[in-house]
Automatic annotation (TrEMBL):
Subcellular location: Cytoplasm
Cellular component GO terms, alphabetical: cytoplasm
Cofactor notes: Binds 1 Mn(2+) ion per subunit.
The organism's place on the tree of life at top rank: Bacteria
One Pfam family of this chain: RhaA
Biological or metabolic pathway of the protein: Carbohydrate degradation; L-rhamnose degradation; glycerone phosphate from L-rhamnose: step 1/3
UniProt record, GO biological process: L-lyxose metabolic process; rhamnose catabolic process
Catalyzed reactions: L-rhamnopyranose = L-rhamnulose
Functional summary from the UniProt entry: Catalyzes the interconversion of L-rhamnose and L-rhamnulose.
Top enzyme class: isomerase
Protein name according to UniProt: L-rhamnose isomerase
Classification via InterPro entries: L-rhamnose_isomerase, Rhamnose_isomerase, Xyl_isomerase-like_sf
Gene it is expressed from: rhaA
Length: 438
C-alpha cells in the first residue's frame, strides 16, 4: 500500500468522522468498542467438520458440508496454519472455537468419554502465543454411538452415559482453557437427537435429555473459566419430523437452570429470525450465545454475508447494549470455496455489521420511535445506509494492520498456490488422483 493510499484512507476517515459527528456519533469511540469484541471463530470451517479422530469418516448428525475445494487442512498443524492466515486478515483479536474431535492424542486411541485437557495442550500453547481465547464443544456426532441419531436422549442407558461422560469431560477441558488463557471458555452442547418421521412419544426423549443435562451440569465449575451453553435446533437431515432439543426445550432448560442459550441463525423456520428473539431472551437470561450463520432454504451453514438479518442482529446488540451479555460465535462450513476466504469473509462481515450498527444514530431513532415519529425513524434508517461506513471500516483495517478492502484476497490466493494446492497434490499422489488445478 503506497503512502498515497494511506493518506487517502486517513483523509476519507476524517471526512466520515466529521459527518458522523454531526449526527452524534463518535467514530473513535465506536472503533474502541469494536476492538474489544472477540468473535469466536469456528475451527471446523477449515477441514469440513472432520476433526483428527477419524478425518476420513462420515460427517453425521444431520449436518452437511458440500463442495470439494482443494486444500482442506488434514491435521492440527495445517489447521492452525490456516487459522493463522485467516486471523492475519481479520481486524481485532478473537477466540477460536474447537470441537472435541480436534483433540491431539499422539496417535493413541482415546474415546470421547476419556478425553482430557492435556489432549488440547498444543491448542492452548498456540492460543497463548497469538493472544487468542478458546471456546469448546463436545462432539456428539460422527461416532458409532450416535449412529442411531440419538445421544443424550437415547433409550439405552449405556449410550446416554457415554455421552454424559463425554460432555462432563468437555466441560473440564473448557475449564482448562479458561484457567490457562484467562478468558472464559464457552462450552456449548448441541446434540443431533431426533427422528426422521412421525414421533409418538415426544416427551420421553426430552425427559431423558433433561436428566442427562442435569447429570452433566452437577459438577459446579467456576464461570470465570467455563460457561455452559446449550444449543437448540429445528431439524436436521434425518431429524426432519422431531428434534428432542428444540428451541422450546432449551429455552425452558436454560431459564430454569441459568445456562446460556445458543441461538443459531440456521435453526429456525425460514420465516423466523434470530434477531427478533434476542431482546426477549436477553430479558430473562443472564447471557446469550449466537451462532452467526446463513441458512439458504435450510440450515445450510452458508458463509455469513452482509445481509439484512446480520444487520438486524448487530442492531439488536447495539440498541439494547447487549455486548456484555452476548457471546458472538460463527457457525458455517462451506467447502465449495477457499476455506480461509470463508473465514475471512464471514468474520469481517460480522465485525463490519457490528461497526455499522454502532454508527447508527440509535438515540435519535429511539426518540423518534418513542414520540411516534415513524417518518423520521424510517427516513433516518434509510439515509444512514448511504453514510460512509466504508471509510470508517477501511481506516479500522488500516489501524489494525490488516489488508484494506479486497486486498486480503490476493494474500489468500497466494497462500492457496504456495500451500494449499500442495496438500491436494500430496493427497493425489497417495490416492493416484491428479492434483486439482484452479
Ligand atoms: C459443528 C457445530 O457443533 C454444529 O454446526 C452445531 O453448532 C449446529 O449448528 C448444528 O446444526
Ligand atoms: Mn450452530
Amino acid at each position: 500500500m503506497t503512502t498515497t493510499d494511506i493518506r487517502r484512507i486517513e483523509e476519507a476517515y476524517q471526512q466520515a468522522k466529521e459527518l458522523y459527528a454531526k449526527i452524534g456519533i463518535d467514530t473513535e469511540k465506536v472503533l474502541e468498542t469494536l476492538e474489544r469484541i472477540r468473535i469466536s471463530i469456528h475451527c471446523w470451517q477449515g477441514d469440513d467438520v472432520r476433526g483428527f479422530e477419524n478425518a476420513d469418516g462420515e460427517l453425521t448428525g444431520g449436518i452437511q458440508t458440500t463442495g470439494n475445494h482443494p486444500g482442506r487442512a488434514r491435521n492440527a498443524d495445517e489447521l492452525r496454519a490456516d487459522l493463522e492466515k485467516a486471523l492475519s486478515l481479520i481486524p481485532g483479536t478473537h477466540k477460536v472455537n474447537l470441537h472435541a474431535i480436534y483433540a491431539e492424542t499422539a496417535g493413541e486411541k482415546v474415546d470421547r468419554n476419556q478425553l482430557k485437557p492435556h489432549h488440547f495442550q498444543n491448542w492452548v500453547e498456540w492460543a497463548k502465543k497469538h493472544g487468542l481465547g478458546l471456546d469448546f464443544n463436545p462432539t456428539c456426532f460422527s461416532h458409532e454411538f450416535s449412529d442411531e441419531g440419538l445421544t443424550l436422549s437415547h433409550p439405552k442407558k449405556e449410550i446416554r452415559e457415554f455421552w454424559v461422560e463425554h460432555c462432563k469431560a468437555s466441560r473440564r477441558i473448557g475449564e482448562y482453557f479458561g484457567k490457562e488463557l484467562g478468558i472464559p471458555c464457552v462450552t456449548n452442547i448441541w446434540v443431533p437427537d431426533g427422528f426422521k418421521d412421525i414421533t409418538i412419544d415426544k416427551l420421553g426423549p426430552r425427559k431423558r435429555l433433561q436428566e442427562s443435562l442435569d447429570t452433566i451440569f452437577e459438577e459446579k465449575l467456576d464461570e470465570n473459566y467455563n460457561v455452559d451453553a446449550v444449543e437448540s435446533k429445528l431439524f436436521g437431515i434425518g431429524s426432519e419430523s422431531y428434534v428432542v432439543g428444540s428451541h422450546e426445550f432449551y429455552m425452558g432448560y436454560s431459564l430454569k437452570n441459568n445456562k446460556v442459550l445458543c441461538l443459531d441463525v440456521g435453526h429456525f423456520h425460514p420465516t423466523e429470525t434470530v434477531s427478533n428473539k434476542i431482546s426477549s431472551m436477553a430479558l430473562f437470561l443472564d447471557k446469550l450465545l449466537l451462532h452467526v450463520s446463513r441458512p439458504v432454504r435450510w440450515d445450510s451453514d452458508h458463509v455469513v454475508i452482509m445481509d439484512d438479518e446480520l444487520m438486524e442482529i448487530a442492531r439488536e446488540l447495539v440498541v439494547n447494549d447487549l455486548f456484555d451479555k452476548t457471546y458472538i460465535a460463527l457457525d458455517f462450513f462451506d467447502a465449495s470455496i477457499n476455506r480461509i476466504a470463508a473465514w475471512v469473509i464471514g468474520t469481517r462481515n460480522t465485525i463490519k455489521a457490528l461497526m455499522r450498527a454502532m454508527l447508527e444514530p440509535t438515540n435519535t431513532l429511539k426518540e423518534a420511535e418513542l414520540s411516534g415519529d415513524f417518518t423520521t425513524r424510517l427516513a433516518l434508517l434509510e439515509e444512514i445506509k448511504s453514510y460512509p461506513f466504508g471509510a470508517v471500516w477501511d481506516y479500522y483495517c488500516l489501524k489494525k494492520n490488516v489488508p484494506v478492502r479486497e486486498a486480503w484476497l490476493q494474500e489468500v490466493k497466494a497462500y492457496e498456490k504456495e500451500v494449499l494446492l500442495d496438500r491436494d497434490h500430496a493427497r493425489g499422489e497417495e490416492e493416484g488422483e491428479p492434483a486439482c488445478s484452479l
